[in-house]
Amino acid sequence: MLDRPSGGSWREGIIGVEVGPDAPGRRHSYPVPCRSDVPPDGDRSIRPGAHPSMAAVTHEGFELQGERSRLLPLLRDLWRSRTLIRTLAKKDFFVKYRRASIGVLWAVGLPLIQALVLSVIFSRIVRFQTPIRYPVYVFSGMMPWTFFSGSINTAVTAIVDGAGIATKVYFPRAVLPIVTVWSGFHGYLPALGVLILLAALLHVHLGLSLLLMIPATMLTVALTTGFSLLFAALHVYFRDMRYIVQAIMFPWLWASAIMYPLYKIGSLVRYVQYNPVLG
Asked: In this predicted model, what pLDDT tens digit does every residue of 97-106 receive, in sequence order?
């Protein structure tokens, strides 16, 4: 049961969630922040110190408000919801591959298959010259792109799709798109290991450049989270946003220099360099 204390204070609510592909009926508990500033049904007023947008959302579903959320309180709410994010992300990741014959291996297999196909086309037919072996070059770009594009395509509808649970339990709406990012991150980490293994098999010496994977991964997650929050928020106001995102992903992929070295596009480099996904 969810405890809603009086006076707008924060307490720990407990919710059961099934986690993992092989755990039917298993219930896990995690803490979620709960506020009592939501007025009861029929009471349209907002209590002193209450969150007005929460009252509107709980009473009507989605009612857009003009008030802007302050950054620091939002970050504090997200930090309080970190266990909720981890639990939902883990559940979403395993449920996605539950019925697949090879399960979660598809999280690594898809970018690897794409990289192998592109390697055959661009190294045997087009014959691009890259600073490292082409399979390693293209997989090192396809791997973060798969995480980036897959997370955003799922996150863009996360707030609208999660309206049902969001009107029953208080948590920041930003949790919903962030969950999709962390769900994709569960597949991104094993792919990093496959990249290192592929480089070793093809005799590509990484050396100290391996250490750069740490800040590169952090930047990739931050960038993916930012775009996911942006597109998910826009989709609440403009429901065509999901189709716009799908439409821009393909040209965005080709503008990210994943399949080709930058010297091949000549003077277009001056425009491509503004692509935040480049590199």
From this structure: 777 777 778 8
